[in-house]
C-alpha cells in the first residue's frame, strides 16, 4: 500500500504482483466452460474480458422468462401464474448445483422452496410451477453452456461403463473369492456388495438401490423383461453423484 501511494504517477499506475483473492462466478460452470472452450458459457461466468461483470443467473432468468412468455401466450396456465415470479433468487440454487449432479426432481424441490417463501404465490400451484420452472431452468443452462452439457453427458456415459465393470468385478470376486487388489488394477478397494443369492438370467434386468455414491446392482429374478425404464433409472442414479466426479472428488475407485 505504501509503495502504491508513493508511486509518482498515482497508486492506480502501480504494478503489483500481490495476489488478489476473488470469489468465482459459479465455479463449477467455470470449470466446465474452460474444459469445453465454451465461448457463450465462458462469457456468462466471467472467463472472458468484458466491460462489465456478467451474471450467469440473470442470463438464465432471461431465457426462462422468454420461454415463459411464449408459453403464456399459448394459453399455458402455469406460465401465466408465474408472471412476475421468475426471479434470480428462485433459480439461483438450481443453476449452482447443476454441475454437481442436481436432477430435475432436485431442482424442482429447490425452486419450490423459493416459491413457498413468497407470500403472494398461490399455494395450489407450488408443485406444477416448480416442476415447470425446473425443466425450463435446466434446459436454459444447456442452451448457454452447450459444450459443458456435452461434457457432462460424456461423464454420465463413462460412469455408466465404470459402474458396469465395477459390478461384474464384484460378481467375479463373489464367485471365486479372491482379493481384487492382487490383480494390481485397483489401488483402493470399495467394491459394490452383491446381495446373496444373486441370479444370472439370459434376459438381464437392472435393479438399482442405494443413496449417494453407494449403488447396488444385481439381476432381478422376478423382473419383467420388457421394462424399458431400467437403463434410464440407472443413468439417473449415476448422474446424481458421479458425473461431476472431477469437481467434487467423488470417485469411488482409483485406477493406475
From TrEMBL:
State the protein's name: DNA-directed RNA polymerase
Q: Sorted alphabetically, which InterPro entries does this protein's record hold? A: DNA-dir_Rpol_C_phage-type (IPR046950), DNA-dir_Rpol_phage-type (IPR002092), DNA/RNA_pol_sf (IPR043502)
Keywords, comma-separated and alphabetical? DNA-directed RNA polymerase, Nucleotidyltransferase, Transcription, Transferase
Describe the location of the DNA-directed RNA polymerase C-terminal domain by residue ranges. Answer: 2-163
Q: Where is this region: Disordered?
A: 226-256
Q: What is this enzyme's EC?
A: 2.7.7.6
One GO biological process this protein is involved in is: mitochondrial transcription
Q: Does the keyword Transferase apply?
A: yes
Protein species of origin: Protopolystoma xenopodis
- Compositionally biased intervals (Polar residues): 239-256
Q: Kindly state one GO CC term assigned in the UniProt record.
A: mitochondrial DNA-directed RNA polymerase complex
Q: What's the catalysed reaction?
A: RNA(n) + a ribonucleoside 5'-triphosphate = RNA(n+1) + diphosphate
Signal sequence span is: none
Q: Tell me, what does this protein do in biology? A: DNA-dependent RNA polymerase catalyzes the transcription of DNA into RNA using the four ribonucleoside triphosphates as substrates.
Q: Which GO terms describe its molecular function?
A: DNA-directed RNA polymerase activity; mitochondrial promoter sequence-specific DNA binding
Q: Which family does it belong to?
A: Belongs to the phage and mitochondrial RNA polymerase family.
Amino acid at each position: 500500500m505504501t509503495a502504491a501511494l508513493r508511486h509518482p504517477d498515482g497508486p492506480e499506475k502501480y504494478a503489483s504482483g500481490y495476489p488478489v483473492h476473488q470469489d468465482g462466478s459459479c465455479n463449477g460452470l467455470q470449470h466446465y466452460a474452460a474444459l469445453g472452450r465454451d465461448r457463450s458459457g465462458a462469457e456468462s461466468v466471467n472467463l472472458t474480458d468484458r466491460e462489465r461483470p456478467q451474471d450467469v443467473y440473470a442470463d438464465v432468468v432471461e431465457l426462462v422468462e422468454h420461454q415463459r412468455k411464449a408459453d403464456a401466450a399459448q394459453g399455458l396456465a402455469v406460465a401465466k401464474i408465474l408472471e412476475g415470479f421468475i426471479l434470480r433468487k428462485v433459480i439461483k440454487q438450481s443453476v449452482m448445483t447443476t454441475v454437481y449432479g442436481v436432477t430435475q426432481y432436485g431442482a424442482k424441490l429447490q425452486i419450490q422452496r423459493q416459491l413457498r417463501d413468497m407470500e403472494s404465490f398461490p399455494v395450489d400451484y407450488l408443485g406444477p410451477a416448480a416442476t415447470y420452472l425446473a425443466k425450463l431452468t435446466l434446459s436454459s443452462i444447456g442452451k448457454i453452456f452447450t459444450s459443458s452439457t456435452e461434457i457432462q453427458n460424456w461423464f454420465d456415459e463413462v460412469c455408466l461403463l465404470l459402474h458396469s465393470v465395477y459390478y461384474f468385478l464384484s460378481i467375479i470376486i463373489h464367485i471365486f473369492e479372491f482379493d481384487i487388489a492382487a490383480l494390481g488394477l485397483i489401488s483402493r478397494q470399495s467394491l459394490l456388495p452383491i446381495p446373496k443369492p444373486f441370479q444370472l438370467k439370459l434376459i438381464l434386468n437392472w435393479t438399482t438401490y442405494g443413496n449417494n455414491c453407494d449403488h447396488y446392482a444385481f439381476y432381478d429374478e422376478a423382473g419383467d423383461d420388457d421394462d424399458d425404464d431400467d437403463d434410464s433409472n440407472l443413468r439417473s442414479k449415476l448422474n446424481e453423484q458421479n458425473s461431476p466426479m472431477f469437481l467434487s472428488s467423488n470417485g469411488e475407485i482409483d485406477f493406475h
